[in-house]
Amino acid sequence: MKRDTVEVGIIGLGTVGKGTVKVLLGNRDILRERIGFDMNLRKIADLDIIKDRGIELPHGILTTNAEEILHDPDIDIVVELIGGIHPAKEYVLTAVRNGKHVVTANKALLAVEGTEIFGEAEREGVEIGFEASVGGGIPIIKILREGLVANRILNIYGIINGTSNYILSRMTEEGIEFTDALKEAQRLGYAEADPTFDIEGIDSAHKLTILASLAYNIPFAYSEVYKEGISKITPQDIEFALELGYKIKLLAIAKAGNSAVELRVHPTMVPKDNLISKVESVFNAIYVEGDAVGEALFYGKGAGDMPTGSAIVSDIVDIARNIRRNSGRRAPVLKTQSSPLRIKGMEEVVCMYYFRFSAMDSPGVLSKIAGILGDNNISIASVIQKGRRVGGAVPLVVLTHMAKERNVMEAIKSIDTLPIVAEKTHFIRVEGKGE
Amino acid sequence: MKRDTVEVGIIGLGTVGKGTVKVLLGNRDILRERIGFDMNLRKIADLDIIKDRGIELPHGILTTNAEEILHDPDIDIVVELIGGIHPAKEYVLTAVRNGKHVVTANKALLAVEGTEIFGEAEREGVEIGFEASVGGGIPIIKILREGLVANRILNIYGIINGTSNYILSRMTEEGIEFTDALKEAQRLGYAEADPTFDIEGIDSAHKLTILASLAYNIPFAYSEVYKEGISKITPQDIEFALELGYKIKLLAIAKAGNSAVELRVHPTMVPKDNLISKVESVFNAIYVEGDAVGEALFYGKGAGDMPTGSAIVSDIVDIARNIRRNSGRRAPVLKTQSSPLRIKGMEEVVCMYYFRFSAMDSPGVLSKIAGILGDNNISIASVIQKGRRVGGAVPLVVLTHMAKERNVMEAIKSIDTLPIVAEKTHFIRVEGKGE
C-alpha cells in the first residue's frame, strides 16, 4: 500500500535535532518539489519538552517518551540524535526490530557497535542512514559508497574534527599555546567543557572507523585505530614545520596495501601547498585517492545544527524514496565480513618523521644522534640547528626519509637516555612529498 | 524475472570509452563485492574496431554497428560516449524508446537537448545517468541531487573546464601570454586543436546549464547562459589582479534570488585566499552554497579516461542496482517545467568590476573617468596608477563597489570614446569579498 507521506520520528532535540527540524520543516516545499511526496514529522522525543528552542513545532508532536516513537506503527523512519552509546544503542536496535529504518549521526555508536547494528538491520531488512556521522554537511558517506563505488580506495586523509582544526589553525595564525587556543575554542562554543574526545583524536578515530569500513569493506575496527591527539603540539613545532614547508594538521589516515590497511589518527605535517593544508578553522575536508578517480577532495562544515541537519535530511529522503518505491535497500547495508585485509599494527607503519631533540649545545651531539638514527635504519633528509646557547639545551630539528615506526620508537628510546639530551624528544609524522 | 547480471553496451570507444572499460573490467571484483552481482559488458560499438587501444577486451564484443547495441533485447543499459549532438541524440532517443536506460557523458547534448531527452525518458520509464557530464570524476551530480537534496542552493561557483584553468594557471605562474599557454596546453594534450569550446566558455556553459537545472529545477537553458572566454586575458591583468589580492579564474556561476537566477560564465577575479583560487592546473572544483549546508567545495580531476570512467561506472551501478530491485527510478528524472524562477538577463547582473583603462598620461584623466563612472552609478573602491610615461598611454586600474552590468556597459561606451583613452577598456568581473 502506498501512503501519501513518509512518517518520521526524531529522538533527541539538541543542536542536531533542532537543525534537522529546521531543514525538514523550513524546506518542506523544495523537498516536496524534488521528491514528489511529503515527509511528515510525526513525533519528537526529548527529556526536556518545555525549553524554548526558538523553533515553531506543530502542536502536540513533543513527547518525553522515546518509546512512543519506537513503537508507533505509523512511523517509518526513526532518527536517533541523542548521541553516546547508551541508551542510543537500545533505541536503535528496538527501532530496527520493529521494522523501522534508522537515521543516526552517532559516530561513536557506529564505530563501536556498528557490526552488531548493521547485522541486525540486515536481518530485519531495514536501512541505517549515517551520512551525518562523518564530515557534517559533506556528503562523504554517499560519495564513498555510491559516487566513488567504482574505485579501489588507495588513501584517505581527513580533517574530520573541527575543534582540533580550529585549535591548530589558531596556534598557526597567532603563534599561541595549545591551552590558550583551546580556551578560545571553548569560549566560542567550538570545544566542549571536557574536550577529550575532540583533542585526543577519539572523535576522529570514530569517524575514520566508519570511513574505513565503507572504503575497504572491513569490520568496524575502532579499537585497532591508532590515536594520538594534538595536546602536545607546541608553537615551536608549528614554526619549525612552516620553515620546512609544512603545516601541522590532525589527520585521520587510511592507507591500503595489498593485504593490510593502516588506520591512524595523529598530528601530521602536510606540505603547505597541499589543498588540505588550506582547510582552516572549524572546516572539515576529506581527501580521497581512488585508483580511477585519482585525487579528490571534499570540503565543508563538519558540524553545526544546519549542516548536520542537511545530512540527516538527505538520509531521510534516500530512505523515503525507497519506501515509496517499495524497493528495499538500494545500496546494500555494510557487509564487512569477507575482507581479506588485516589492520596493520602501528609499529609496521612507514612514513617520514620530524624530530625535535632538546640537545645540549656541545660538540658531537649531532653525530651522536645521527649515529643512533643510522643504527635504526633511519636516514636524515634535513637538519635545522639554531639558537646556540652556550652550555644550555637547544632545539635540534631533523626531518627523516621514510622510516619504520618501530625503528623510530627504538631510536627515540635510545636517544632520550643520552646525557646530552635534556628533554623527551618530540616527533611528528610527515605525509606527502615535501621536497 | 531476476537475471544474474545486468548487461551493458557501450557506444564509442574513445578516451572515455576506454576508461570506462578499464574501470568496469579492471575493478569487476570489487564492484561485485560491493553491489552483490555482476555487470556484464556485452557489446562495444565504434567505427574503428581495428586500432590497438592497449586494453584487452573479451572476444567478439566489438562491433562497428551501434544499432546492434540499441536493438539488442538483452542489453539493459546503453552508454553513449561518442559526444556531439548528432548522431548521439538519435542513439540516446532510440535506446530510450527501446526501454533501455542510458548513461552519457555528453554535456553538449544534455545542455541543448536535455528537455526533450529527459521528457522522453520520463515517458518511457527509464533512467538517464549523467554523472560524467560535469566535473569528470567529482560526483557533483549525485552530490547536488541527493547529498544536498535538503538545501536551497544559493550559489554555485565552478571551475569546470580544465583546459582554461590550466592556461590561466600557467599564465599566472609564468607570466606568459595566453597564446603561449594555449600552445603548451595543446602540446600536452590538455587542449584540442580547435580549442574554441574550452577557451570561449562554451563547455563550461554546457555544464553550468546542467548544474542549474539540478539546483533550481529550471529547464535546460543553455542559450540563456552568458558566455565569455579567457582569450582576452593578459599577463598584465593577472598581475594587477594579484596586486589587488585576486586570482583570475574562468568561473561558471549560478546565483539564485527570489524570482530569478543568474547563469554566467566569464573570467572572474576571486580573492586569492579563497579555496577555489587554489585550484590549479587541469583540476576542477565546484563551490556550492546551500541554505543548510553552508559553504562546501568538491575538488577533483575534471577529465581524463579513468576519472570520467569512474563517474560513468558509478551511474551504471546506480541504474543496475535499481534494475536488480525492480525499483524504477529512485531519484526522479529531472522535472524542470514547474519552476517560477526566470533567468536574469546579463544587463541586470550586479557585481564588482575591475577596469583597466588605457589612459593618456595627462592631468585630469582620472577625474574625467571617475566622473563618467559616477554618472553611471558606479562607485570606486580602489585605484592603481603607475608607470608614468610622459605623453603616452599608461594603465589606470580601477576596482569598483557593486555595480550593475548595464551601467558598466554604458560607462565603458562613454569612456572608450574619450580622446584621452588610447585603447578599448579591459574589464573583469569580481566575485567574493576581497577587502
Overview of the structural elements:
The structure is a homodimer of 435-residue chains. Chain A is built from 14 helices and 18 strands. With 435 residues, chain A is of the alpha/beta class. In chain A, strands 7, 8, 9, 10, 11, 12, 13, 14, 15, 16, 17 and 18 form a twelve-stranded mixed beta sheet that branches. A six-stranded parallel beta sheet of chain A has the order 3-2-1-4-5-6, with helices on both faces. The radius of gyration of chain A is 24 Å and the shape is elongated. The mean pLDDT of chain A is 94. The interface between A and B is large, with 60 and 60 residues. Strand 12 (294-301) of chain A pairs antiparallel with strand 12 of chain B, so a sheet runs across the interface.
